[in-house]
Amino acid sequence: MAISHFDRLCKKIFDRPEAGADLARNVLPGAYLERIDLSSARIEKGSFIDKELRLHSSDLLLRFELKDTADPLFIYVLVDHKSEPDRWVSLQLLRYVVRLYQDLLKQQPRPARLPEVVPVILYHGIRPWKYPLQLSELIASLSSEHVPKFLPILYDLNRIEDGELVGAVQTVVGLLSLKYIKRRFTIEIVRFLLREMRRLPENSSLLKEFYTALLDFKEEEEIKLFLATARQMRYREKEEDLMSYAQQLRTEGREEGIKEGEKKGREEGLKEVLKRLLEKKFGLSPDESRLIDSAADIHAVEAAIDSLLTADDKEEVLEKIQHRQTE
Fold first, then answer.
1. How far apart are CA 174 and CA 168, in angstroms?
2. According to a count of CB atoms within 10 Å of the terminal CB, is the N or C end of the chain lower?
3. Where among 160, 184, 208 does a domain terminate?
4. In which domain, by residue range, is 278 found?
5. Taking residues 116-126, what's their average pLDDT?
């Protein structure tokens, strides 16, 4: 589950237009920063990532207006959560950019031109990035004339000095959290993170996402080191925050487990009722019993029980389950 927490942490860092402007200040070349109006930053809704990749990646689409033209500039950001360099990320980004253009053409069927999209990979894995980013270098070709040239920007947090990050406190602390949370915790790293997190407002929602990722991703030994260092630095509020949040998560987990157990118990109980009633009225074979046990749709089981009152044979009852399973 750590992947989903990293995804939420990234979304929390960049959940405001001002944070989008901060991201642009950090990742874009100077030639772009001279042309775009950072105050016009807007977060576009929607996602272009395939469903099967959404557990591993999070996309963020930012829109900026240019200072000297009415044409918008889009910055498309793919945040990689796999902690490993991805050979085919340029191809994935190209697919997402094409989808964006298709959506724009639906909104405005005959534009004079399409806006530029600047694809950015915000990479916070531990291993060095080793694959080429230029898509044409990944394609075996006889002629370069027919090969797409597509080069995303790689923003590798491992190669960025901490003091080079610019922007509001939440943006900088969020990026530093992404940079260090996957590294093996040392006293130096923990002390650095604690000092940075103390810069955040007490009610910052970014802290909650950081604690969630910390508790889910880190080994118990590293969590203990975090707590002990907070105590040593007299950051009692951070120690108490993490401990109280951990207790909250455990409580929520127990409650969720109870609800899930009650649901599962009810489903199993209904299946047993159906089997018992069928056995009494028509008889029940082992295969038919297994069919009822394998039913994934509890509403089908309820429908089968209701049909027992008027059914002339057991096939009419079992058909309720078989029909739902083959839909």
1. 10
2. C
3. 184
4. 268-326
5. 89
**Of all residues in the chain, what percent carry a pLDDT higher than 90?**
27
Cα 128 to chain centroid distance, Å, stands at 22
Count of domains observed in the chain: 2
Q: Which two tokens stand for residue 89?
A: 């990320």
Domain end, chosen from 140, 162, 184, is at 184
Is residue 179 domain-shared with residue 277, that is, in the same domain? no
Q: Which residue from 46, 43, 149, 39 is spatially nearest to 91, judged by alpha carbons?
A: 149
Q: Is 200 exposed, middle or buried (0-12, 13-18, 19+ CB in 10 A)?
A: middle
pTM: 0.68
Range from 36-40, 48-52, 122-126, 308-312 carrying the lowest mean pLDDT = 48-52
In the DSSP assignment, the letter for residue 22 is H
Please give the Cα distance from 139 to 121 (Å, whole number). 20
Domain-embedded: residue 263: no
219 Ramachandran zone, left/alpha/beta (phi>0; psi -120 to 50): beta
Q: How far is residue 280's CA from residue 262's CA, in Å, rounded to a whole number?
A: 27
Q: Is residue 189 part of a domain?
A: no
C-alpha 287/C-alpha 276 separation (Å) is 15
